[in-house]
From TrEMBL:
Residues 143-208 form the HTH luxR-type domain. Residues 3-119 form the Response regulatory domain. Keywords: DNA-binding, Phosphoprotein, Transcription, Transcription regulation. GO terms for molecular function: DNA binding. This is DNA-binding NarL/FixJ family response regulator. GO terms for biological process: phosphorelay signal transduction system; regulation of DNA-templated transcription. It comes from the Bacteria.
Length: 210
């Protein structure tokens, strides 16, 4: 059962999301909120697998809420679900540790697929968002390759993350247990000083680690 927490200020959309998730096999909504004013406490209380996070909310918005989540929990998957697809919001969300960035017009079946993908270690993005991310990488200044002291195995795992592999696929490719994959990725995050797959991939490109 994939346990979901929802942050969305529009009551109709929030109710629609709740009905969609609760009405689908293998998914359950733990709770839903209209803003992120108490997000750290709520995440600790519910321990969700995935958080669907709107950006533009009254009080504490989604980008600030994401920062607060990462201060207390680096593991929970946070998918930004929003009408905004501008570069600034995309960059801020990924920099603050989002695991994916989806538009609210995403079809229901696809949204459920994206939620499941995130729990498996994926970084789902609406195609228009993915295009923007690729363009951002293209304009990143070339910098000297920094030495983060990654081991040979950690470098292999990072390469597979960049190639879009999920945790399960990495385990299969390298013939190791999925818990071993998680251990390697945790060490990679620590060495790169990041909190999510999207941040690790961005740093790999930015600092030419591969």
């Amino acid at each position: 059962m994939i346990r979901v927490l929802i942050y969305e200020d529009n009551p109709q959309f929030r109710e629609g999301l709740t009905m969609l998730v609760n009405g689908s096999d293998g998914f359950s909504v733990l709770a839903s909120y209209k803003n992120c004013n108490n997000v750290a406490e709520e995440v600790e209380k519910w321990s969700p697998d995935v958080i669907l996070m709107d950006i533009n909310m009254p009080g504490t918005d989604g980008l600030e809420g994401l920062k607060k989540i990462r201060e207390v929990n680096a593991e929970v998957k946070v998918l930004m679900l929003t009408v905004f697809d501008d570069n600034k919001n995309v960059f801020e969300a990924l920099r603050n540790g989002a695991n994916g960035y989806l538009l609210k017009k995403t079809p229901p079946a696809k949204l459920l697929e994206y939620i499941q993908d995130a729990t498996l270690g994926g970084a789902p993005m609406t195609s228009s968002i993915a295009t923007q991310v690729l363009k951002m990488f293209q304009v990143i200044p070339q910098t000297k390759n920094q030495d983060y002291c990654l081991s040979e195995r950690e470098t292999e795992v990072l390469q597979l993350l960049v190639d879009g592999y999920s945790y399960k696929m990495i385990a299969s490719e390298l013939f190791i247990a999925i818990d071993t994959v998680r251990s390697h990725i945790k060490k990679i995050y620590e060495k790169l000083h990041v909190n999510s797959k999207s941040e690790a991939v961005a740093k790999a490109f930015k600092d030419k680690l591969l």
